[in-house]
Amino acid sequence: xxxxxxxxxxxxxGFDRVETVILAALxxxxxxxxxxxxxxxxTFLLNSLSEALGLSHRHYNASLISFDDLVGFPFPDAExxxxxxxxxxxxxxxAESVLIDEISRCKPEHQNRLFSLIHERRLQGLPLxxxxxxxxxxxxxxxxxxGDDYIGSEPLDPALADRFALFVDALDWDALTSEEKLRVSxxxxxxxxxxxxxxxxxxxxxWRAEFLRQLARCPAEFVSYSTAAVSVLNGARVxxxxxxxxxxxxxxxxxxxxxGGRSEAVFEHVLRCSLPHAAWGGEISAExxxxxxxxxxxxxxxxxxRRWVHLFHLEKALPAKxxxxxxxxxxxxxxxxxxxxxxxxxxxxxxxxxxxxxxxxAVKGGLPIGAEGVNDLGKLASPILTVDGKVTxxxxxxxxxxxxxxxxxxxxxxxxLSGGRRERAKQFFNxxxxxxxxxxxxxxxxxxxxxxxxxxxxxxxx
Length: 462
Hints:
Layout: H1 19-28, E1 32-35, H2 42-52, E2 57-61, H3 67-71, E3 73-76, E4 83-86, E5 97-101, H4 108-120, E6 122-123, E7 126-127, E8 133-138, E9 142-145, E10 148-150, H5 158-161, E11 166-169, H6 178-185, H7 199-215, H8 220-235, H9 242-259, H10 264-272, H11 286-301, H12 304-314, H13 318-328, H14 332-345, H15 348-363, H16 371-385, H17 407-414, H18 419-435, H19 442-456
Parallel strand pairs: 1-8, 1-11, 2-5, 5-8
Antiparallel strand pairs: 3-4, 6-7, 9-10
Helix pairs in contact: 1-7, 1-9, 7-9, 8-9, 8-11, 9-10, 10-11, 11-12, 12-14, 13-19, 14-15, 14-16, 15-16, 15-19
């Protein structure tokens, strides 16, 4: 992920692939939740971080804790005007870091009480001014996860889960490297404090200072990426809250500082670790996250020809794509790439309609594309231009030739047309029937095809 491994210096193994994300959480000081099977080092990691940073740390088991363990025992002050709490070494008031272990196993009323601790650094309405880091750990919610039965691990309330900025998956045995398995199995360092000579503390302090400096005017790329990624996910019916977009921007900024630059791999990984759905038992397909990242990265980070090609593909309608090609294409290479990708990515009826509309102008040099682009258009357009005569349909060998089942639908589209537009549409639809390429909306596609022809009319030899 772009950083030298620091966690192994603390005796922590199996988290190298998410190290940048973990370090980013230290920089932002936003809440972090670790999710994984039992025995995967979640608690050890978080306790080790507190030791290396020299923090006043509290480790609570949420499945056993009572609220008095957190706040102490209430008693009135001498004037009996307010209530104070009798503190013990275990109370949270002086803590700089808090680990709420087994958070998915605590009672619902305790989850509600922990809400303000995680979200606001408050308890009972009172601030916790020394508290910097709020961490939690849980097993996967639901039964039969990783071969274990976690029926006691209940989904978090979505509102509580949404207060965590980052979600880190802990690897089980089979996902560890051979070296990591040997390190984990070695008991020689058991019980030793995690101490790297202050290196991590020094680095986190420097990263934090740079983070706060840039946060005052967060670079537009981070905000734009978060906005675009969250918009794409919500558009794909993956609900992501507005708050999540802001947390994502903070995490991206911190991760880029830790990694020493803006890396596409870091951005995608932070996005994956910023989605809370696993904490409440939800699922998001890897494809949906990859698509959101690709769209956000291309729209916010690409420059030059690559950015123009991306903008070309953002246009949905074929006439809009052609208008962009004619009006702002930076050169034949970009134009050829855009056309080739259009023909490869659009459904076959749409790519064929586009090729039929623009190929005559392309042959005469009316499009800003190279010879390869013209050839690709020709491969689709030429078979359509050679279609002539009546297309018949024989459903079974015993049947006589009849009209194609789609003919009536196409006839409705053709009936109001006349002249060259009608002949072109008729030729296109006959090719669709002959090739078995059936458009979902023939009228709409014919309209787009004609609009493309009209855009090219000045370039056509009439």
